[in-house]
């Protein structure tokens, strides 16, 4: 880890309790997950279904069937845990906010990811940072939060896994095509969470403005009248986003957009629906 990454990790570690608290509050206000609601080997009752010829007489639930003129089979809920993997963009531009009083994109992504992880572990599932070992048990979310301190690197997707990617998705479309294609080839699917700062959405700049590249890099652009390019900027941003959404749909990763000046609950609710469908 280089000096800049180490300093960033230490800063995040100092704020870790706050991120975890925000995540737990967000999870507390969210609708519950379904748990492992699918049939299989287990002890917990799930549902009755009609008896099929291939079931044979052994599987008939005679007590339930005696109430009517149909035969029923008692299905149990499958108990094998699944794993949700998280990938959070490590680019310096993602750890940025246009207003010091508002969350950075990175912190908001971590908050939503940890809130989702909290709900998943309550349902008996495992969670993990892509490229590291999965976490389970009562301390799983705390351990996952510490895993998030290290910069995210690309890693092979586990076979038939569920992966949630958090990013502003400003990297070239071809970069994302290669990443999602590799995941899909492994049988993975999941979701793309596009986290945006309101300044990136609305481009409110007027008058002489100097734009600096985040992360200490010296790239800079001076615009005399940025308001004159607002429409062109908005069109290019929408074109890029449309391409990312199309890629996500092609490879089994539906995309949702979240602004850091909006509440996180709607984004979490949509993620719950997407992951529940993936785990069904």
Description:
It is a single chain. This protein is α/β, with parallel strands linked by helices and 280 residues long. The chain has two domains: 3-35 and 81-279, 3-Layer(aba) Sandwich (Rossmann fold), CATH 3.40.50; 45-76, no CATH class. The chain is built from eight helices and nine strands. The strands form three sheets. Strands 4-3-5-6-9 form a five-stranded parallel β-sheet. A two-stranded antiparallel sheet has the order 1-2. The protein has a two-stranded antiparallel ribbon with strand order 7-8. It starts with a helix and ends with a helix.
Short description:
This protein is of the alpha/beta class. It has helices at residues 3-28, 62-65, 105-122, 140-147, 173-185, 198-202, 230-251, 265-279; strands spanning 45-50, 72-76, 83-88, 126-129, 162-167, 189-196, 209-212, 220-223, 255-259.
List its traits.
alpha/beta; Rossmann fold; 5-stranded parallel beta sheet; two-stranded antiparallel sheet; 9 strands; 17% strand
Question: What shape does the CA trace take?
Answer: elongated
How many strands in all?
9
Strand order of the largest sheet: 4-3-5-6-9
Number of domains: 2
The main pleated sheet reads as: 5 strands, parallel
Structural class designation:
alpha/beta
> Count of helices?
8
**Quaternary assembly:** single chain
The ordered string of helix (H) and strand (E) elements is HEHEEHEHEHEHEEHEH
Topology:
Elements: H1 3-28, E1 45-50, H2 62-65, E2 72-76, E3 83-88, H3 105-122, E4 126-129, H4 140-147, E5 162-167, H5 173-185, E6 189-196, H6 198-202, E7 209-212, E8 220-223, H7 230-251, E9 255-259, H8 265-279
Helix pairs in contact: 1-3, 3-4, 3-8, 5-7
């Amino acid at each position: 880890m280089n000096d800049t990454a180490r300093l960033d990790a230490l800063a995040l570690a100092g704020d870790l309790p706050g991120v975890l608290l925000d995540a737990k509050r967000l999870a507390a206000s969210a609708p519950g997950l379904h748990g492992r609601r699918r049939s299989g080997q287990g002890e917990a009752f799930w549902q009755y279904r009609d008896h099929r010829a291939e079931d044979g007489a052994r599987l008939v639930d005679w007590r339930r069937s005696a109430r009517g003129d149909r035969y029923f089979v008692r299905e149990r809920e499958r108990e094998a845990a699944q794993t949700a993997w998280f990938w959070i963009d490590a680019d310096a531009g993602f750890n940025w906010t246009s207003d010091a009083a508002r969350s950075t994109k990175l912190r908001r992504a971590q908050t939503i990811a940890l809130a989702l992880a909290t709900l998943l572990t309550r349902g008996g599932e495992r969670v993990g940072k892509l490229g590291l070992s999965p976490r389970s048990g009562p301390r799983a979310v705390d351990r996952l939060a510490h895993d998030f301190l290290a910069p995210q690197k690309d890693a092979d997707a586990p076979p038939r896994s569920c992966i949630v990617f958090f990013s502003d998705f400003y990297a070239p479309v071809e970069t994302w095509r290669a990443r999602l294609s590799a995941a899909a080839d492994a049988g993975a699917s999941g979701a793309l969470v596009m986290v945006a700062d309101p300044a990136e959405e609305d481009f409110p700049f007027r008058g002489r403005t100097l734009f600096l590249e985040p992360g200490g890099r010296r790239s800079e652009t001076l615009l005399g009248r940025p308001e004159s390019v607002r429409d062109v900027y908005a069109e290019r941003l929408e074109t890029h986003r449309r391409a990312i959404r199309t890629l996500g749909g092609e490879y089994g990763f539906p995309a949702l957009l979240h602004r850091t000046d909006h509440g996180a609950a709607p984004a979490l609710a949509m993620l719950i629906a997407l992951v529940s469908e993936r785990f069904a």
